[in-house]
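Exercise 7. Given the encoded structure of a 87-residue chain, write a plausible sequence.
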């Protein structure tokens, strides 16, 4: 029985218009204050919530009542927003 011919596949190369641009390589790392600010916001948010609960809702600001929880979680959400900018 005769042997069939082996076909060699061509190596695929993407067209020039579909290649990724060099814009990704121009992105610079984030400044050093970004992770520092995020960590500070996390610590402040957790400290605010812990202080509020351990002081039986008298501190940090007694007149705000349960809005202190919103302030604590607001600091934590703000840290997430800052961390979304970190490269």
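Solution.
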């Amino acid at each position: 029985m005769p042997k069939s011919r082996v076909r060699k596949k061509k190596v695929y190369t993407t067209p020039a218009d579909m290649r990724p641009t060099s814009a990704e390589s121009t992105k610079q790392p984030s400044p050093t204050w970004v992770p520092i600010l995020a960590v500070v916001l996390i610590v402040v948010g957790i400290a605010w919530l812990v202080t509020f609960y351990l002081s039986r809702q008298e501190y940090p600001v007694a007149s705000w009542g349960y809005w202190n929880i919103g302030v604590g979680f607001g600091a934590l959400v703000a840290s997430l927003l800052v961390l979304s900018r970190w490269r």
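Remark. The chain has a mean pLDDT of 86. Students should compare their own answers with the one above.
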